[in-house]
Amino acid sequence: MISHSPLLCHPLSPFLHLLLLPLFFTSVASQCKNPPVIFNFGDSNSDTGGLVAGLGFPVNLPNGRTFFHRSTGRLSDGRLLIDFLCQSLNASFLSPYLDSLGGSRFTNGANFAVVGSSTLPKYVPFSLNIQLMQFLHFKARTLELTTAGFGNFVTDEGLRNALYIIDIGQNDIADSFSKQMSYAQVTKRIPSVILEIEKCCKGSIQSRRQKILDT
Predict the structure, then answer these.
(1) What CA–CA distance (Å, rounded) separates 206 from 164?
(2) pLDDT tens digits, residue range 71-94?
(3) Domain residue extents for the chain
């Protein structure tokens, strides 16, 4: 398993991940004849506007100034890793699930990530299990509308062959340290965080053969 790799357990592992991810994108892109359907779960690392749409929280310039030349709800002056992934696969940028305005398109998937999200506690907006519940509602409603012949939505085949990305957990660790927990106490919480991510993987798969990238 990746988690047991000595290389990725090295103190410089975040930088190694940044170096290795482009190789992953290239590998995936080479296998994709058509732009894939993508579903993303996470926090500020991949939020493309969920915080603004969900809570009305202002994310103003200089965020967005270098690529979009306007604020898009991303906590970045340009694109995020999820944006580069979409571009590398010739897919459209993911629309936030919570954004019902501004021409949101969900034909190529949806983004459930929201700034500040964590795996625990559960049932708190917008924890990972809430994002999973949103996805399950999205899937059920999408299939219902597709079956009824309404609109242009993700098909059942699209759901089966989609790429699912989970990038979350940093806020769990940061919150633990902010509560003055010791290193040993924080370390003991990590298995619980991993368990919630595992539950999300199983919940999104539901007997389907899907590709999941846990960053």
Answers:
(1) 13
(2) 999 999 999 999 999 999 999 999
(3) 35-214
